[in-house]
Write a structure and sequence with these properties.
The complex is a heterodimer of chains A (about 120) and B (about 230). Chain A has five helices and no strands. Chain A has about 120 residues and is mainly alpha-helical. Chain B is mostly helical. Chain B has twelve helices and no strands. Chain B has helices at about 5-25, 35-50, 55-65, 65-75, 75-80, 80-85, 90-115, 120-125, 130-140, 145-170, 175-195, 200-225. In chain B, helix 1 (about 5-25) packs across helix 3 (about 55-65), helix 7 packs across helix 11 (about 175-195) and helix 10 packs across helix 11 (about 175-195). Chain B is globular and about 55 Å long. The chains are: A mainly alpha (about 120), B mainly alpha (about 230). The interface between A and B is large, with 72 and 104 residues.
């Protein structure tokens, strides 16, 4: 338990350092890419090149991803300042979200299946 | 900053999360989404006690501190799935790109037809991407982070509830295609549903979620303005 907690803590520090590096690089290179995406790509490159061993971040990553949903709760609470918008356009927004999700899923599913069939007749 | 209030808010958020997570894990129904239920509970409680978002903000900032490192942690599942990814590189990349562009275009065109403001449209743009990345894309584009977060959660629910039936109606049977479709549109929640269908579908959901995030982050600054006035 305690060993695990220490492991999670230092592995999270490592993830945090790569995150800060991502944020720094985006700023220094003036990229229109979120810093956290840059950090994720950077971490993928570090793993793929063997500089970082998966075991170094496995426990910390596992913990953060298992409780990923938790971080979204405080952000979503910010929605309470949008009461008027939800009352005014709530139904329209729901219709848009539904239409857009279904269109995107259908296009991805159908196009992937067609491309797969073409390659494996 | 009021320290008692701060501590109470953190405990309240943690408690709401743990309780709704247990509820979801027991019944596994997509409508029992922990983020959705916890958010509603906290907002209702704040409203009932006359507290405002400003009171909640210090606790919010402290609790989202680890979101950056958590996003970086997404590199690990992507790394573990790199073989599946390289085996199906062409269908994966083109399918995810087509789906991401379609879902953004549909939302923005429908939003314009229904006369929504540009700020709302920009917040809608990245809603098919996992929250930490969607929020950043939205902020960079000029949208609102909280609004985007809510759209992302709603999209996750919609896609994971209606997605599998829609794909069956469209005769999409391949687990690779189904997993990619669910992950592209409904990120983590779609991936969770794909994982219930099969291991391959689940792995593809995770891959799609990561690629859709990177792809959307790269194209959104140029693509979204095309749909504004």
């Amino acid at each position: 338990m305690v060993t695990n907690l220490i492991k999670i803590t230092w592995q999270t520090v490592l993830l945090w350092l790569v995150f800060r590096l991502g944020v720094y690089l985006v700023g220094a290179l003036d990229l229109s890419l979120p810093g956290n995406v840059a950090g994720m790509l950077l971490m993928f490159a570090l793993l793929a090149s063997g500089v970082v061993q998966p075991a170094w971040i496995e426990t910390g990553s596992g913990f953060l991803l298992k409780h990923f949903a938790f971080f979204f709760i405080p952000i979503s609470v910010g929605l309470m300042s949008f009461g008027p918008l939800v009352r005014k356009s709530g139904l329209a927004l729901l219709a848009i979200l539904l239409l857009s999700a279904l269109a995107g899923a259908a296009v991805t599913g159908i196009s992937v299946q067609l491309l797969q069939r073409r390659r494996e007749p | 900053m009021n320290l008692t209030l701060f501590t109470l808010f953190v405990l309240l958020t943690l408690g709401a999360y743990l309780a709704t997570r247990r509820l979801f894990l027991t019944y596994r129904h997509p409508l029992l989404n922990p983020v959705f239920l916890s958010t509603v509970a906290i907002i209702v409680l704040l409203q009932a006690t006359g507290l405002t978002l400003e009171d909640y903000r210090p606790a919010k900032d402290a609790m989202t501190f680890l979101l950056g490192p958590a996003t970086v942690a997404l590199a690990l599942p992507l790394y573990h799935n790199r073989q599946v990814l390289s085996k199906h590189a062409l269908p994966v990349l083109s399918g995810v790109a087509a789906g991401s562009l379609t879902t953004m275009a549909t939302a923005l065109v429908a939003g314009r037809v229904l006369h929504l403001d540009d700020g709302v449209l920009l917040s809608l743009g990245p809603k098919s991407v996992t929250v930490p990345i969607a929020v950043e894309i939205s902020r960079l584009a000029g949208g609102d982070a909280s609004l985007t977060a809510a759209f992302v959660v709603a999209t996750g629910m919609i896609g994971s509830i209606a997605g599998p039936t829609l794909l069956t109606l469209c005769r999409v049977q391949s687990p690779v295609a189904r997993g990619l479709a669910l992950g592209t549109v409904s990120h983590g929640q779609g991936t969770a549903v794909a994982l219930l269908e099969s291991e391959t579908a689940g792995a593809m959901g995770g891959v799609a979620m990561a690629i859709a995030a990177v792809f959307t982050a790269l194209v959104a600054p140029y693509y979204l303005p095309l749909f504004l006035r």
